[in-house]
């Protein structure tokens, strides 16, 4: 990160509570940044979990003449918003990527599902999961297995994903954890005997 990018990031953090000064700074400094510096400042705000600044820089990047829709650009924004539990912003980003025709691959969908579950946003996670199901990218056994492992704390959701997995890839075997195969008491009894 260059000196100019550091200065801009610092000033954005300092001025974001004062709307008038913040808007002036966006027009006078941020709008004149080179591509690499603007992208770097946006990435730094995401890294520091600053949703408001990240969204403003997201809008600034999308207005640039050099901007082209990119899966990773949207993925990083969605990860940061999931960590910060920003539902409205997430919906806006999702609408934007749909308008621009951005298509995620199965790996990215799986990572997003996990990020939203970890963030406690299960409704948004289900929306992303439904998008994954209807994606033109073919389903991958490994991605579903990783998701099933991550969904152990969410048994109802895990069963839905497991049923979908078996429907999409019927010749596969899903291994359930040992706790699911026995009653809770029987499992503890066998563990104590060992």
TrEMBL record:
InterPro entries: PPR_rpt, THA8L-like, TPR-like_helical_dom_sf. It comes from the Eukaryota. Signal peptide: none annotated. PROSITE patterns: PPR. Keywords: Repeat. PPR repeats lie at residues 70-104. PANTHER family: OS03G0297700 PROTEIN, PROTEIN THYLAKOID ASSEMBLY 8-LIKE, CHLOROPLASTIC. This is Pentatricopeptide repeat-containing protein. It comes from Solanum tuberosum.
């Amino acid at each position: 990160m260059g000196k100019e990018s550091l200065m801009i990031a610092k000033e954005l953090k300092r001025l974001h509570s004062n709307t008038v000064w913040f808007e002036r700074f966006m027009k006078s400094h941020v709008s004149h940044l080179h591509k690499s510096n603007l992208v770097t400042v946006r990435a730094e705000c995401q890294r520091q979990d600053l949703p408001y600044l990240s969204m403003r820089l997201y809008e600034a990047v999308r207005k640039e003449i050099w901007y082209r829709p990119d899966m990773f650009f949207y993925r990083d924004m969605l990860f940061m918003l999931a960590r910060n539990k920003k539902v409205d912003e997430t919906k806006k980003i999702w609408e934007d990527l749909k308008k621009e025709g951005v298509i995620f691959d199965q790996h990215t969908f799986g990572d997003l599902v996990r990020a939203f579950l970890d963030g406690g946003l299960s409704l948004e996670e289900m929306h992303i999961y439904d998008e994954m199901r209807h994606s033109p990218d073919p389903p991958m056994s490994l991605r579903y297995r990783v998701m099933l492992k991550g969904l152990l704390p969410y048994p109802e959701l895990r069963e839905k994903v497991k049923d979908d997995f078996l429907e999409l890839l019927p010749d596969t075997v899903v291994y359930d954890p040992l706790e699911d195969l026995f009653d809770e008491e029987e499992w503890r009894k066998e563990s104590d005997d060992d």
